[in-house]
Every structure is written in structure tokens, then in C-alpha cells.
Amino acid sequence: MVQVPYLLPHGDGWRDVSYTVTVLGARGSIPTPGSGTIRYGGNTSCVSVERADATGRHLVVLDAGSGIRLLGNALASRGNGVEVDLLLSHTHWDHIQGLPFFAPMFVQGNVLRIWGARQGEVDLGAILRQQMHPVVFPVPLDESAADLGVNHIGPGTFEVEGFRVDAFRLRHPGNTMGYRLTPAGGGAVLAYLTDNELDGHHGYDVGPRWRAELVAFLEGVDLLVHDAMYTPDDVGEHRGWGHSSYAEAVALAAEARVARLMLFHHRPERDDEAMDGLLSAARAAARASGHDMEVLAAIEGMQLIL
Ligand SMILES: [Zn+2]
Ligand SMILES: [Zn+2]
Fold first, then answer.
1. CA–CA dist 231, 275 (Å, integer)
2. The whole model's pTM is what?
3. Mean predicted confidence (pLDDT) in 125-146
4. For residue 19, how far is its CA from the centre of ligand 1 (angstroms)?
5. Which of 152, 169, 180, 205 has its CA 20 to 30 A from that of 211?
6. What confidence tens digit (pLDDT) does each residue in 50-62 have?
7. How many whole angstroms separate alpha carbon 274 and alpha carbon 269?
8. Tell me, what's the pLDDT at 78?
């Protein structure tokens, strides 16, 4: 198992650190344990963002794929009193399947605020309850001991502890949100856009100005985490599935002039060697774009300080 160096430093200078971004799961669709995925990791989508300011520690979690279990285990050492704002991009399995295994949810005194969009007329709470319905899981959601709340959001702005959040509708089957996080009081900006089909397929309900609005949404972003599930070779046969190639992600990052792009939601079939190849091809595409940016591929356990 990947050891997540999760606990943040204390002492002098701590408050000068704006926030820490930790990748807990970088894979799309289904967990992929095994010898071929040791380096990039096999857990599904989960990224944590933590900062401390004069009012305390603030922990925001982006998606609850199987990687959230690692975070829960790391948080267990903090005992009770853990507060988490969990932002769900959407409710496909690979973005919620870790939630029933998120240990802090079962500890009295902890607080878990879940944010996300309705799917059609169906409440987020109803979807999460079904995932833990007795016919498929032994412990119902309503037996969680933590103080748990569900908040419905749509495109627009809301606030969680320590961050301003802007939400943007993505091109993906279902009602899927991308999030832009700005620390309260200012600082580096993070955008998390996974499960997003940048090009082709016109079956999404997003309006004709979607691309221009997306580029505007990303203005001033320091780190863009973006879906790069496919290569230019295999994206064509998956049009309408709601994902992008690394080349499309690089083109977006160049157009929006973001400083750093993290390729995310790796295809289950892509082993470590294939991921290395995808990353070098993406870096070559970035150099060819003429915009000076850093390109990374998400690796489970990777931490960045913004
Ligand atoms: Zn996904
Ligand atoms: Zn999805």
C-alpha cells in the first residue's frame, strides 16, 4: 500500500504554507491494484486539499473514490473533531465508492459536509444511501456516527471552510461539476476538472459558449487537475463517454494559460510504463503549444504545496 505522508508540518512557517494538495487516487473507472500499477497507483479519484489559517485547519476533499480510504486511515490518528468538506464531481461509482470505507464517518464528534449536484430529480443523499443499502452493503449511511450533511449545488459560487468554491458544469454523462478553489483571503488557485470531454460529441446540455466560458473559468489557475484518460489514438472510439485525451487537456491548459497541469483519471488499462509514455507525449505537446507550463501526471501519494 502507498504510504500517504498526510500529516502536515507544524511549527515555524506553517502558516506561510498556503495549502497542501494530496493525490489519494488517480485512476478512473475502477480500482486497478497489481504489479503493473504500483508507481501511479490503482485507487480511484480522490484528492485532498488542506490549509491552516488563524481560524484553524480546513480540509476539503475532492471526490470519494477508493483513495479516500487512505485519507480516512490517516485522519484516524487525529481522533474525533475532524471536519471535512467533501466535494463530489458526480456520482459515478469511481467517485463515490470509497465513501462507505471512510473511517471518520463512523466516529462521533466528526463532521462531514458533502457537496454535489442532484442527478436529474434524484437527491445526492438518496444516491449515497443506495450505495449503502442493506442489499449491497452491511452498514447503512444513516448509521454513521459523524454529523453528516448533504448540500446540493449547481454552477456558481459557494463557500466551504477556508475556501471559496466556484462550480462549473462539465461535458460528461450525468450532472457533473468541475470545481475551482481559492483560499479565503486569496492565494494560489486550484481547479479540479475530471470526467470532462473537451472535444467532439455534441450530446451534452451545456450551451454553445461552453468552451469560452470554461477558458474564462480557468483564468488565473495555478494548478489544473484535468481528465486525461485517453491518447489521441484511443479517444476517437470513446466519443460520448465523457473523457478527454492528454492532448486535449494540454490544449485547454495552453489556451487558459494555466501554470501547471496535472493529468488525472488514468485509464484502468494503462500500466506504469504506458503512463510514462503518455506523460512524455503530453510534455512534448505542451512544449509544442508555445505556452510555458509544467505538466505532471497524478501519482497516488503525490503532494504539492501551493
Ligand atoms: Zn470517473
Ligand atoms: Zn464519470
1. 10
2. 0.94
3. 96
4. 25
5. 152
6. 998 888 889 999 9
7. 9
8. 85
SS3 5: coil
Cα(173) to centroid of ligand 2, in Å? 7
- Rounded distance from Cα 125 to ligand 1 centre (Å): 19
305 CA to middle of ligand 2, Å?
27
Question: Is residue 25 within 8 Å of residue 40, measured between CB atoms?
Answer: no
Do 301 and 43 touch, CB atoms closer than 8 A?
no
Instruction: Report how far residue 229's alpha carbon sits from residue 267's, in angstroms, rounded to the nearest whole number.
Output: 5
Q: Which fold has domain 18-305?
A: Metallo-beta-lactamase; Chain A (3.60.15)
Question: Residue 112 C-alpha to ligand 1 middle, in angstroms?
Answer: 22
Spacing of C-alpha 264 from chain mean position: 8
d(CA 145, CA 257): 44
pLDDT tens, position by position, 89-126: 999 999 999 999 999 999 999 999 999 999 999 999 99
Residue 281 Rama label (left phi>0; alpha psi -120 to 50; beta):
alpha
Centroid of ligand 2 to alpha carbon of 90 (angstroms): 7
Report whether 44 contacts 29 (CB < 8 A).
Answer: yes
* Residue 34, pLDDT score: 97
The amino acid that residue 206 corresponds to is V
Extents of the domains making up the chain: 18-305
